[in-house]
Amino acid sequence: MNVKVLLVDDNQLNIRLMEDILLDENYLVHTVMNGVEVLPAAKDFKPDIILLDIMMPGLDGYDVCRLLKKDFDCKNIPVIMVTAKTEGSDIKKALELGAFDYIKKPVDEVEVIARIQSALRYKENFDRLQEMAMKDGLTGVYNHALLIELLGKEYIKAKRKGTNLAFVMLDIDYFKQVNDTYGHISGDIVLKQLCSILQDTVRESDIIGRYGGEEFGIVFPEISPEDVKSICERIRSNIETHSFSIGARNINITASIGICLKTSSDTLSKTDMIKFADKALYQAKDNGRNRVV
Ligand code: GH3
Ligand code: MG
Ligand code: MG
């Protein structure tokens, strides 16, 4: 895929010069000629990198950089300042505001490409590490810490908007037997396939995480009691009817599910929600497993 560059400069000639350099590399370039348009353009165009002029009327490059670094969607896009301001104090200010690097005007073609590529290499490593810090290595769903953090975020959002929030705990039935009979590697394959079922069954906005071992948590923002019950019932039945293929063999498993739904008038805390979902899960186990409570 082509590298996407958002180019910001208030001077037409500078833009043309830089565009020539970037288009030579087959980069996809979107240009913006004033500071206020940068944040909306960045959200819309989703660039891999932003080349940002400092001296512009209205919002200057420093102001724009500050705005970008405060924005949830844009804060990790590397910003390279392109500037005629070459005093040490100017560069210091740009870097302190979160700019990744700077290029001095008049620009040199080889230097521009080298600095862009260095920023892209950094970003690639950053993304990989961030993914590793957020996701469970085996199943690809969120890890325990992220699941709880995202539940907290949704809890605050639900409170502010006065909407429902559900937390669901799912635990595989007699999973120890799967490991004991077919081995841990097979057990791992089952866990991965189970997560695919979960992902295929819930809505895009729902959040799946590995609570621990063979227990998974799902956060359902803005959901009615009927809908959360029917989605969980569908999860339960999709697991029960799925043929889990481990090597040449196919096996069947079931899972038990506990739901805690908080309406806007409930005063449950985030921790209460986990506690009640867990209680419901254990009731599902006690009542014979392979059921939703
Ligand atoms: P129950 O119906 O009461 O939930 O029975 P169970 O056997 O599923 O429950 P238990 O908690 O006794 O056992 C869970 C098992 O899950 C034990 C553990 O070895 C296994 N397990 C946990 N994490 C992993 C993993 O990452 N891979 C594999 N293969 N097994 C795991
Ligand atoms: Mg279990
Ligand atoms: Mg368990």
Ligand catalogue: 3'-deoxy-guanosine-5'-triphosphate, magnesium ion
What would you call the structural class?
alpha/beta
Order of helices and strands: EHEHEHEHEHHEHHEEHEEEH
Average pLDDT metric: 96
Q: Biggest β-sheet: count, sense, barrel?
A: 5 strands, parallel
**Beta strand %:** 15-25%
Assign an overall shape.
Answer: elongated
Number of helices: 10
Helix percentage: 40-55%
What is the terminal separation in angstroms?
Answer: 47 Å
Number of strands: 11
Poorly predicted regions are: none
Q: What integer value in Å does the Rg equal?
A: 25 Å
Describe the strand arrangement of the main beta sheet, using strand numbers.
2-1-3-4-5
Structure description:
With 293 residues, the protein is an alpha/beta fold. The chain is built from 10 helices and 11 strands. It has helices at residues 12-24, 38-45, 61-70, 88-96, 109-134, 144-161, 175-182, 184-201, 225-241, 270-286; strands spanning 4-8, 28-32, 49-53, 79-83, 101-104, 165-172, 207-212, 215-221, 244-246, 249-251, 255-262. Strands 2-1-3-4-5 form a 5-stranded parallel sheet, with helices on both faces. β1 (4-8), α1 and β2 (28-32) form a beta-alpha-beta unit. α7 (175-182) packs across α8 (184-201). The two termini are 47 Å apart.
